[in-house]
Amino acid sequence: MVRFTTTLTSGGGNATGIAVPEDVMAELTPARKTAVVATLNGYEYRTSVGWYRGAFMMPVSAEHRAGAGLAAGDPVEVTLELDDAPRVVVLPDDFAAALGSDAAASDAFAKLSYSNQNAHVLAINGAKTPETRTRRIASALQKLRG
Fold first, then answer.
1. Are strands 43-52 and 9-12 parallel, antiparallel or unpaired?
2. 111: which DSSP letter?
3. CB neighbours (10 Å) of residue 84?
4. DSSP assignment, residue 32?
5. pLDDT tens-digit map of 29-55
6. Which residue among 16, 93, 102, 112 is least crowded, i.e. fewest CB within 10 A of its CB?
7. Model's pTM, two decimal places?
8. What is the DSSP letter of 72?
């Protein structure tokens, strides 16, 4: 486990992140990208730290900023621990049913990385209307088959 204090930085638009100092990463792991459990001002979540544009960066989504009570420019106490627990995407019931009735798409989905599986689920869960959700599920199945 490593701890440090920094500032939540804006990457432009709604994107925010935390620059993780190289000495902190060296203490944590020799990898250029690693899964971590991050704690920001007492709020804990799972994420990754990766090498991006010449620095180790950790993204902080709007959901996690709200959970930690942070905005870009705020100081933040950060604790990082290596995350060796398996990453499993929880499928929404309608998407799970659609995958269950499409063997090719289901097989393709199972072969995706956690991040790519999660991207499909986030797109589906981000739909604001039932019609959009249905279209996004159909689109995901088509992409997985193709």
1. unpaired
2. H
3. 8
4. S
5. 887 889 999 999 999 999 999 999 899
6. 93
7. 0.69
8. T
